[in-house]
Amino acid sequence: MKHPWARGGARRGAGKGAGREARQRFSRKAGLAVLIGLLLVGIGVAAWLQTTSGGRPGTPGFPVSPVPSPAVPPSHQDQSGTQGRSPTAQSPSTSPPAGFGLEQWAGGLRQPLYLTHAPDDSDRVFIVQQGGKVMVRQGGELQKEPFADLSSLITTRNAEQGLLSIAFHPRFSDNDQVFASYTDRNGDSVLARYRAEPVQSGGSGSRRLDPETAEIILAVQQPYGNHNGGLAKFGPDGYLYFGLGDGGSAGDPRGNGQNPKTLLGSLLRLDVNVARGYAIPPDNPFTGGPEKREIWAYGLRNPWRFSFDRLTGDLYIADVGQDNREEVDFQPAGAPGGRNYGWNVWEGTFRHRPGLEPASEVIFPVAEYPTRPEGCAVTGGYVYRGEAVPALRGLYLYGDFCTGTIWGMRQAGGAWRTSVLLKTEMNIASFGEDEDGELYVVDYRGAVYRFVPGAKRVPETLAPPS
Ligand SMILES: [Ca+2]
């Protein structure tokens, strides 16, 4: 399969060979975490990481606390990444049900980085592995056969590349359509439509993605290996949203974040309810040109996981910071598109480029925390709307890839309140929901955890408004 510019020749940033090899080794061996930490401290690789990758998901875990932290202004009043440390996570599931806990739900996975479900009452949960396989858990067991294997299509030369997400069409039960987002062998971002076909035993529960049905509906050239975004997810409006990072390197050297004439650095909104390719929803913000008509929002650095509140339709976008701020952006349901979330003029509420003016009014995040020492890269989660854990209802949960911290956030009285919910040892690559809205955390080291009733208490500051 070739997309239109597959023969485009050298497009990579210079001087990336050694770094790429290094990252490749690292991505295969999270056990080298300590070594990376030593390198960070001892020989100044911290600077290398920042300039080539900027602290981001897809990277194996490494201890970040030894890295000298840049001077960080006092925290945003509604975020509390600086709050006191709570005991380490994973409360036992035998605890009283008034609070919450985490229990391991699947293990033995290989670099899992996303979890989702199909809207088909099959009760299946799909776990996306970076290397290209999509594993299925059904009937309480992880199935041996993957739902999909796109390994031959992708590259993981850069730690942020690979199979990055799949999305089931809202009418999957009728049309069998599944969308996959991956980094192709040229290192470019691809969004492709597939069909799931029955396998021998038949029945909806055993359909698998058929690679032969591939239709590439969007391919975006990536100038550098990092910051690929890559989440495809259907919104409550039935449109397919697709997040793209700024193209990579560091500091957004090409200014893609503030340039809506490029798809990079944006959240796209596509109408895939057409026979081939996609159409532009009539209420997308830039339908007159010269801006890209696919864009719903821009000014993003690397949107690593966004989600819609399944009750309200509100949109939450976690945008990975560079050196200073990890942020969560928010768009209330029904608000028009075209929002500019600020990068690369702003990194959260930190002025990244003082001499630069944004392309339009900037919408600032509703939560942020210092990139160090609180973390290295934010991973966006979900508003919990499940039944099993009443203590978490209505909270938006998000985490950090490196420190494993999980925060809760709630809007109350017009203000956003954020607080640490728990500290874990995970490399939080993603959160995910099943069909019932139960919530999971994907640990890049190879496991999935599920939120359950437990002994851990939600801080009083996050209590629902009375
Ligand atoms: Ca921003």
What does this entry look like structurally?
The chain has 466 residues and is mostly beta strands. It has a domain at 107-378: Neuraminidase, CATH 2.120.10.30. Helix content is 7%, strand content 33%. The protein contains 4 helices and 28 strands. The protein has helices spanning 17-28, 33-42, 45-52, 172-175; strands at 99-106, 112-117, 125-129, 133-138, 141-142, 148-149, 163-168, 177-183, 189-197, 208-220, 232-234, 240-244, 266-270, 295-298, 303-308, 315-319, 325-331, 339-340, 346-347, 350-351, 367-370, 378-379, 396-400, 405-412, 415-423, 428-433, 439-443, 447-454. Strands 2, 3, 4, 5 and 6 form a 5-stranded antiparallel beta sheet that branches. Strands 11-12-13-14-18 form a 5-stranded mixed beta sheet, with no helix packed on it. The protein has a 4-stranded antiparallel beta sheet with strand order 1-28-27-26, with no helix packed on it. A hairpin with a 3-residue loop joins β27 and β28. It is globular. Mean pLDDT is 83; it is low at 1-91. The structure holds calcium ion (CA). Calcium ion is lined by residues 319, 327, 341-343, 346, 348, 365.
In short:
With 466 residues, this protein is mainly beta. It has four helices and 28 strands.
Shape: globular
The CATH architecture category of the domain at 107-378 equals 6 Propeller
Total helical elements: 4
Mean pLDDT: 83
Largest sheet: number of strands, sense, barrel closure:
5 strands, antiparallel
What is the strand content? 25-35%
Separation, N- and C-terminal Cα atoms: 56 Å
The radius of gyration over CA amounts to 20 Å
